[in-house]
Amino acid sequence: AKEAGRARMICYETAMDTDREERNALELDLRNAIERQELTVAYQPLVDAVSHQITGVEALVRWNRPGYGPVSPDAFIPVAETSGLIEALGLLVLRKACAAARQWPDLRIAVNVSPGQFRNPAFADYVRHVLKDAAIEAERVTLEITEGYMIQNPERTRQSIERLKRLGVKVALDDFGSGFSSIGYLRQFGFDRIKIDRSLTMDVLTDSHAREMLQATVALARALDLPVTAEGIETEEQGTALQLFGCDELQGYFFGKPMPEAEISRRLAVQTAR
Ligand code: C2E
Ligand code: CA
Ligand code: CA
Ligand code: CA
Questions:
Q1: Which of 48, 106, 112, 176 has the most CB atoms at less than 10 Å from its CB?
Q2: Per DSSP, what are the bridge partners of residue 40?
Q3: Is ipTM beyond 0.95?
Q4: Residue 137 in contact with residue 102, Cβ under 8 Å?
């Protein structure tokens, strides 16, 4: 039994070493990808809940890792967060998104911001520089931040949001409903919008508890005068339900997956022609 125990231990250590090696290799490749500007940005349509016309896009980072293929942001954003790469990555995405936005004067551009960026007191300054370089109106840019960070650091969140809003950019609370939500608390922060996480919207038609939660959440947000985006809409019926609950904006595969810039432009051309 002792022998078996030792063997298992060795196995376990080897697995840990392998994990660490893989993570280090991923980090190194990511660092190179950022330096060489190999990361790209895909754009997912945000649509008006009633007309289904495109009113904005969310910028989502994409990485085609050499020798591996596409890696999910859920796999590499956390690595970027813990290895000091997130600020460079975030800046790259913001630059590309603002540059792309120049072709779409009527669209809102939503960009995800990690706690590691948001936490930096100089964040608002570099946002200001990017907006100036891209010559894009601040009002068209919405920065999406997740509720986890807000709850852990309410005071810093408030300060960061204030600085950003002084620039004229909008701030949305992302992934709402995925963690410990306390909507009553939202009011103090000056958010311009909330985005309801897919983990809530996906069950809208099948789970009466999810439905009631959603209904109550959207009603409360509307009572606070906060517009609401529902993400993860995969069917027309889900979209209809969320529109009826009071969401003004929808996002999800039913309306379009994240796509290249040119595809957004093509859809806009079709939309205006109609
Ligand atoms: P998120 O901000 O909640 O973004 C929405 C995610 O849901 C995206 O995944 C999108 O492709 C996916 N999605 C949208 N509609 C549907 C749908 O109808 N069905 C399903 N199954 N999925 C849908 P993606 O692109 O893999 O990004 C995952 C997460 O990675 C994002 O979640 C965001 O938290 C983070 N992320 C992506 N790009 C960036 C970035 O540039 N910076 C930072 N800090 N985080 C990013
Ligand atoms: Ca988001
Ligand atoms: Ca989400
Ligand atoms: Ca997220």
A1: 176
A2: 62
A3: yes
A4: no
